[in-house]
């Protein structure tokens, strides 16, 4: 059969649609989405997944290509009895379960013209498919066991990665680095729980005395291991979301000029008039391979101006929220330092030298700026240092591990075997929420709703 022949000469469109109506009563619908995005490009990748994908592909191009091999085909629809060519595209067929979603799937590599994409999408709808919701492909992959919840979140992070460090971290999560560690903990806890159940169910049996001792020792070691893991800090989570560096100081010390210099563009208005900056200005940059949001704040001083006073209040708020405070002054050092982990910077060294032990710069001449950039980059790297072999990257992960540690700690303190066993079961449940093995339904919409369409 000619691969570019008009398909469906022995089938009418209505027959195909009737089959899809019957199919949808028993199986999830076929979904489709433009996986390559909407930006101008030469090629657009339309992804399909679900039972019945094969029939849709056959209706479009006549017959299925060989699995996982690209085949150039004509894509057709019917206008009454008249076949209409939509595009000539590369078609790939991925029969389940060996596909990303675990279902029958396909990709159509189209010419990326808007008219082509629209015509193919309309035809897919006519054949019984529907547009995918955000994250629905990955959610189906999770449902069919092709990836766990940690890996699914890693895919979302990989799509959003701005820097090389974020890419490496997300890729490690996609490859299952975190999942393997948490699974090891779950396996150890499961064995300990089995020992506990044996002690409860067979109290009159002569079980080896070392069973009880191994249980107690195992709980203690696992509890300490997970506590150490939590103590390693939030570096990976900070790297995923990016850092916030707040630039603060009194009026007219050059905060806005410093922001512009670090950003490499005129993002903030610079004026010799005090109180020019009334609201925070945020600029996203990369420092030390870490995404950093620089926040230019209003000058800190007592003022009767209601708007400027509100700006000062917001500046103090940003200081409390910032990962690092860049405290800028000119001339004499400030009498008091703001709270928080920060960097003290003396600007306008072209007019007077910086005090000893303080980073001196001149935004006007550029003197000292390279040194300051290096210091801030080192600070960004230190705040996101990966000291764990498989660090947690989200607050959800930390909360689940903390809950697990809490229940294991309570289990150690329980004298009654039944109460100890219950605390261990609660610990297992909390740990299972990390990878999605138990109690995950409430998490799914939140996790997968953050995805882009087509992933």
Automatic annotation (TrEMBL):
Binds 1 potassium ion per subunit. GTP binds at residues 252-257, 271-277, 296-299. (6S)-5-formyl-5,6,7,8-tetrahydrofolate binds at residues 47, 107, 146, 455. GO terms for cellular component: cytoplasm. Residues 242-381 form the TrmE-type G domain. Its EC number is 3.6.-.-. Pfam families: MMR_HSR1, MnmE_helical, TrmE_N. SUPFAM superfamilies: P-loop containing nucleoside triphosphate hydrolases. The gene is mnmE. It is found in: Cytoplasm. Mg(2+) binds at residues 256, 277. This is tRNA modification GTPase MnmE. Its main location: cytoplasm. GO terms for biological process: tRNA methylation; tRNA wobble uridine modification. Belongs to the TRAFAC class TrmE-Era-EngA-EngB-Septin-like GTPase superfamily. TrmE GTPase family. Homodimer. Heterotetramer of two MnmE and two MnmG subunits. One of its GO terms (molecular function) is metal ion binding. It is an enzyme of class 3 (hydrolase). Exhibits a very high intrinsic GTPase hydrolysis rate. Involved in the addition of a carboxymethylaminomethyl (cmnm) group at the wobble position (U34) of certain tRNAs, forming tRNA-cmnm(5)s(2)U34. Keywords: Cytoplasm, GTP-binding, Hydrolase, Magnesium, Metal-binding, Nucleotide-binding, Potassium, tRNA processing. It comes from the Bacteria. Its cofactor is K(+). It comes from Komagataeibacter europaeus (Gluconacetobacter europaeus).
